Fold:
Amino acid sequence: MGQRRAQAFVTGIMWPVTCTCISAPIRSLLKVSLPHVETSSHNVTAEVSTMNRPFIVRYEQDALIVSFPAPARVLSWAVLNGGFCHADHIINHHVSGDDRWFCAEPERWLEESASRLGLQGTIVALASAVEMKKLVEVSLSAGGNGVTCFATVGCSNALSVGDPASVAIEQTAPSPLHTINMIIVVQPGISDEALVEAIQIATEGRVRALYEAGTWSSLSDLAATGTGTDCIAVVSLGAERERYCGKHTELGELIARAAYIAVKKGIAATFHP
Structure:
């Protein structure tokens, strides 16, 4: 029997690739070609960004807002409400590079921004100088598992792990820089241990995309592994609590592919807007 291939949808255009959905839901379509994705042994399918899902996505005032019907377990190192928490909303907010208030009080700036957006409850907030019109969304599913990755990608602040430090802990926040922010929503729910593992898997997906793109550190002659201000937030949705999501698992495969493809697309959009 022939090998089954999933379909990828980009604003109504369809290609017979294995497992990716790329969507630019704000203002303009990303003018980049779909990456080649190796065929998986799993029956992984792509879904358009408007698929039925237990969370709401909207864009207002330079912000991506992901809202949940009930508080969802989240792990991140976001400026606002980082660490483990139960969040009602997650936002990724564009910040102007010359915003002195943000540099002086980033947490308060994000709290005020969330209030202006009309959000209530616990809000996890990320920030970046990357404009939200460059946001990439990737949704993958297989075997009852689903992963959606929202990413904004900027590489002007690219660094290699271990590069010389450029700021001191006691200094105020640097001016908003291009960064790689990812919000990853995972279904079914995963344990706290798996949330930690999911961040590792997503980080490896980011590193792979940067390596394949030939991205170099802005401070050294080393290959970039990220930027100096990256952030990842992973959301666990559902009553079930999968314990593992490593590379041997189907859920780990979906998390890795979603992160990798989203960052790859974001890099391409940065250099070919």
Observations:
- The two ends are 41 Å apart (CA to CA).
